[in-house]
Write a structure and sequence with these properties.
Layout lengths: L4 H6 L1 E5 L3 H12 L3 E6 L15 H4 L1 E4 L2 E6 L5 H6 L3 E5 L6 H4 L3 E4 L16 E5 L4 E2 L5 E3 L10 E2 L2 E2 L18 E3 L4 E5 L6 E2 L4 E8 L7 E10 L4 E6 L5 E2 L4 E6 L13 H18 L1
Parallel strand pairs: 1-2, 1-6, 2-5, 4-5, 6-7, 7-9
Antiparallel strand pairs: 3-4, 8-11, 9-10, 12-19, 13-15, 13-18, 14-17, 15-16, 17-19
């Protein structure tokens, strides 16, 4: 398929969400020649920001492995961005634009562990990634997102495995490698994605809220964010982002020699993306 005017009308794929797993799917579809439009929230909270096109919401543009995501503010800008060979990113958390766009397929890649409004009436083909969807009920297909034997499995009836809350094992570490905020407040980063850190090293500071999210800042009362294990900072939420207690804010890869992997789409994202492409090719081509 060519990225041309007719393709915009006939083969537009809308992906809800632009985080790192979603970006794997977006990149695979874009690479295969499909026209892709991404719908995002106005304040995305991606951790692996180097491989998340949702960063375009803040920066205006985000590039991942040769693919460029470009923020647009109106649906009417979609055609020009697609014609340039890029991926438009539109702030539309409630997916209100889908009715006007009439896409061939909608992929819910928000990974919220629950359905945030996607339904089968949105497009001739609908796909949900991970828990929160039931194939044949609110979407046509579900793709398994839990690491393990069934990762990437296409589910035609039923649901994905429930969320365990435990990240997949990397380099012998699972929950230890993911860091959550110990207090509500505004985060200020000291270290950066790609930095090598030691266990206990301070990588950021949270300026606490008085009682929780949305309350007045108390600059004198700050909470250090320490590396839980030694390794590479694989993901770190944006500097200045307001977080709630328990919010996921960082991810450390214990494999210190895997520097390049920090800046490329993960194996998990590629596996899921392949399954989404499989479904779309089988039903749209």
């Amino acid at each position: 398929m060519n990225r041309n005017k007719d393709g915009i009308k006939n083969n537009l794929i809308v992906v809800r969400g632009g985080g790192d797993i979603a970006t794997g799917t977006i990149h695979r579809l874009w690479s295969a020649g499909f026209l892709v439009l991404v719908l995002e929230t106005d304040h995305p909270a991606a951790i692996r920001r180097q491989v998340s096109v949702c960063e375009a919401v803040y920066e205006g543009m985000a590039q991942v492995e040769g693919m460029r995501g470009v923020r647009i503010d109106r649906i009417e800008e979609t055609e020009q961005v697609l014609s340039d060979g890029d991926v438009p990113i539109l702030v539309d958390p409630n997916a209100e634009s889908i009715r006007r766009l009439s896409p061939s397929a909608v992929v819910d890649a928000i990974l919220a562990k629950r359905n945030l409004g996607t339904d089968r009436t949105m497009a001739p083909l609908t796909i949900g990634l991970g828990p929160g969807f039931t194939a044949g009920v609110d979407v046509d297909f579900v793709v398994e997102t839990m690491r393990g034997h069934n990762l990437g499995r296409v589910i035609r009836s039923g649901r994905a495995l429930p969320n365990t809350g435990v990240p997949g094992v990397i380099g012998g570490y699972a929950s230890e490698r993911v860091i959550h905020a110990e207090a509500a407040g505004v985060i200020h980063n000291i270290r950066h994605i790609g930095d090598v850190v030691e266990q206990g090293e301070i990588i950021a500071v949270i300026d606490r809220m008085a009682e929780g999210y949305g309350e007045e800042l108390n600059p004198a009362d700050s909470c250090p964010v320490k590396a839980t294990i030694p390794g590479l900072i694989r993901g770190l939420i944006r500097d200045g982002y307001p977080v709630t207690k328990g919010f996921k804010i960082a991810d450390i890869d214990p494999r210190k020699t895997e520097y390049d992997n920090v800046f490329t789409i993960s194996d998990k994202a590629r596996c899921i993306a392949g399954s989404v492409l499989e479904i779309i090719c089988a039903h749209l081509l």
